[in-house]
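Please produce the structure of this protein holding 4'-deoxy-4'-aminopyridoxal-5'-phosphate.
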Amino acid sequence: KPEPNFIQLADLPLRPELVGAEPYGAPQLDVPVCLNVNENPYPPSEAVRKGMARAVAKAAKSLNRYPDREATSLREDLARYIGFGVSSSQIWPANGSNEVMTHILQAFGGPGRTLLTFTPTYSMYPEYARNTHTNYVTRPRNASWGLTTEEILSAIEEVKPDVVLLTTPNNPTGTTIPVVVIDEVCAGTDAIVVVDEAYQEFTDAPEDSSIALLPKYGRLIVVRTLSKAFALAGGRLGYAVAAPAVVDALRTVRLPYHLSDVSQAVARVALAHAPEMLARVDELRDTRANLEDWLQLHGLDVISSQSNFVLFGRFADRHAVFQALLDRGVLIREVGPSGYLRVCAGTPRQTDAFRTALLDVLPTAP
Ligand code: PMP
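Below is the modeled complex.
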């Protein structure tokens, strides 16, 4: 009988750009305090869990059938949540905003086309580009980790991208790009402009969203997710808000029945509890603000954040600090500009555990 692993990855006729590539992702470690992937630390409440269980039981009755390909009810719920007068024909949901982004690049990127974004930024973007055969070109953010209209437009002028990806609040810096800048960029380019607003609900003014610009710009796409504010990272539900024609383009490239009945049902329950979810967001915003103050008080350099996480440093050897915290049961993230670490806002108990561990580590921190 042949060994199940008689063939190795290196023996397979992989696409050349995949040779040597590792499946990417943050470490998933079993530790008491996980503050490493910007999740919402609060599990769904009992009321939400019960609602989800009921909705899944109902969906199960017809799981022999394919799901609603157009996710009609979910898109209506999302449009209602978003406001700004958007209709369900302007909403495109998929399995996390990372699938939405892949759809966008399948439709508007591809061979011979270029995606431009600004670093440091979300580490999955190059993977979406590679997987869709799109050239990935980056330019640096400015000294305050922001971007001005001039900086973005001059990069566009130089790179001539087909798709420009602007992340606000940005991961991992937590810094924002004002809507007026997005407005001026859209006015100054024919490229598709994607605004990743994964953390928008955590900002001080969530209603200041580029969604307000959609009536003016047919090539603007705003991407959001239920993973963070709606504590649904495990449910996998992200969505784009754009012109109906853009949604039609995304519908063309999606896999048939890409969004399961179970995902649709669970997401609808989360949305039905929006006020409860957003109250938690308010609490997490305060936790992050207090954490920033505390880190500063302890002499650390903090990048002022508008999200549920914060970058702090600078350490000569950030890995040593990361490891010392992990040894104390606290997992954070080694990411972003050199010397910095990223931690996200947890429950009071988790955030306390982080502070206690860091105090223990700081006196000797390299
Ligand atoms: N965009 C940004 C900026 C992110 O930080 C993340 C998650 N870390 C995502 C998108 C992806 O979120 P999801 O696929 O869970 O919706």
